[in-house]
Amino acid sequence: MEETISLRELLQTLRKRLILIALITFSAVLISGVVSFFLLTPIYQSSTQILVNQTKSNQQQQFTSQDIQTNLQLINTYNVIMKSPAILDKVIEELDLNMTTSALNSSLTVGSEQNSQVVNLNVQHTDPEMAALIANKVAEVFQEEIPDLMNVDNVSILAEAQLGENPSPVKPQPVLNMAIGFVVGLMAAIGLAFLLEFFDNTLKSEQDIEKLLDLPVLGGVMIISEDDMAKIEENERNRRYRGDKVGA
Question: How many helices (H) and strands (E) does the chain have?
Fold first, then answer.
């Protein structure tokens, strides 16, 4: 016999496990909040911008489209060079950083918008002041080294990284993490509720018996407590006593 599950049965399952769902969801949100606020180290980000542009000569009064296209084609190369050991090793040496080249590389993000000659350099660090310092030093070293590396002089620093008065971390984001925890916890709780219902093969009501046997239920056996039994016996004695009085 093919079994079908109606929407009402699904809602009844959720309602029956409502406390379990609420506890799991609340626990997931609470754990996400505790981890975000107290366990994860705040990470700050600082950014600088580099302009890739040819230096005009005295005879050249304006840039041609060919010059701009050449600069655009070099940007991807510059992005790789900027994160190379040739640049980062010198940054570590000049700033006396207690970190490896690989660690510094992973903290850098270099990119540019499509068809843009401006390269954005982002640095993430646990210290906001150090993040700005590294960003400016990478841009400075890159500008100094690129003429020797590629025999060109078309890089200038457009905007230096600045340290704000009250810098705020870019991660973790407690509100976002708690929202994700809520969604994940709710989905896990609902899944667990349906899983428990699927493996629960006990009969709890007359409807369960009627559904299992496909037969109408004619009666049921109730569980009577000791107090209820005492009341029944007392009522029975009173009934007999009244009957005896009427017979007399």
Answer: 9, 4
Give pLDDT tens digits for 70-98. Answer: 667 778 888 889 999 999 999 999 999 99
| Peptide bond between residue 174 and the one before it cis (omega within 30 degrees of 0) | no
Which amino acid appears at position 228 of this protein? D
Sheet holding 108-112, edge to edge: 108-112, 118-125, 44-52, 155-159
The domain 44-159 having CATH identifier 3.30.70.1130: the answer here is: yes
CA distances 74 to 15, 54, 88, 116, Å, are: 62, 11, 19, 11
Domain limits of the chain?
7-39+173-199, 44-159, 206-242
DSSP state of 58: S
Q: Are 161 and 131 in contact (CB under 8 A)?
A: yes
What span, in angstroms and rounded, lies between the C-alpha atoms of 20 and 168? Answer: 37
Tell me the pLDDT tens digit for each residue of 193-242. Answer: 999 888 877 766 666 667 667 767 666 666 777 777 788 788 877 777 66
Under a CB-based contact definition with an 8 Å cutoff, are residues 84 and 100 in contact?
no
